[in-house]
Amino acid sequence: MAIFRSKLFFLLILFCLTTYELHVHAAEATQVGEGVVKIDCGGRCKGRCSKSSRPNLCLRACNSCCYRCNCVPPGTAGNHHLCPCYASITTHGGRLKCP
């Protein structure tokens, strides 16, 4: 019985942490408006572009996207699904703008 309770408690904690993470990412993906806390675009983009072959170009594009969306996906590449606004911005030529 104790093992069942400990597993149930573990699952409850895991559920709470997952719900919290989803809430945090959903808040980052919203458009910037009243009452929304702006993130540190410079710091997030510096990390995002740290392995880029063209860091100045990457930083300029990343900061532009971050200021518009108030979101930068984690990591140095990919993870665009965590910031839908960031992933949907394109150039005039139809290519993805945000690194």
UniProtKB/TrEMBL annotation:
<keyword id="KW-0939">Gibberellin signaling pathway</keyword>
<feature type="signal peptide">
    <location>
        <begin position="1"/>
        <end position="26"/>
    </location>
</feature>
<dbReference type="InterPro" id="IPR003854">
    <property type="entry name" value="GASA"/>
</dbReference>
<dbReference type="GO" id="GO:0009740">
    <property type="term" value="P:gibberellic acid mediated signaling pathway"/>
</dbReference>
<protein>
    <recommendedName>
        <fullName>Gibberellin-regulated family protein</fullName>
    </recommendedName>
</protein>
<comment type="similarity">
    <text>Belongs to the GASA family.</text>
</comment>
<dbReference type="Pfam" id="PF02704">
    <property type="entry name" value="GASA"/>
</dbReference>
<keyword id="KW-0732">Signal</keyword>
